[in-house]
Amino acid sequence: MMRKFAVAVILSLAALPTSHAAQDRFCVAFSFARRVTYLTEPFTSSAPQADAEAYFRNQLDSAQLRYDAVQCPAPESNAGTQASLATARSFNAKMGFKVLTLRFSGNQLVLSSR
Fold first, then answer.
1. Does the residue 34 lie in any domain?
2. Of all residues in the chain, what percent carry a pLDDT higher than 90?
3. Which domain holds residue 48?
4. pTM
5. How many domains does the chain have?
6. DSSP characters for the chain?
C-alpha cells in the first residue's frame, strides 16, 4: 500500500507537458525493501519522459543501485522543479525512507554531497 501511495504522490507532483522542448526535471527511484529513495539533482533535458526514465534506469543499473520504480517528472517551471523536488525529499524522509541525492557526472551517476 505504501508503494502505491508513494508512487501516486510523485505522479501527482507535476503536470507533465506534452512538448519536447528543453525542460528542468529531476528523476526519482524507490527501493521499497531497502527503504531508500534516490533523487537526482535538477537537470535540463529535451528527452521525452519515457526516454529520460529509461536512461535513469540504465544509470541505476550501471551503478548497481537496486530500485523498484523510477520516474522523471518535468514540472512546468524551474520553480516547480525545485518545489517538487523539495516535496519529494521531505515526504520520503517523513515516510522513513533514506533519501540519497544523485547527480549526473558525464555518463554516470554519483552520490551528491548534498
1. yes
2. 57
3. 23-111
4. 0.76
5. 1
6. -HHHHHHHHHHHH-PPPSS-S-EEE--EEEETTTTEEEEEPPEEE-S-HHHHHHHHHHHHHHTT---SEEE----SSHHHHHHHHHHHHHHHHHTT-EEEEEEEETTEEEE---
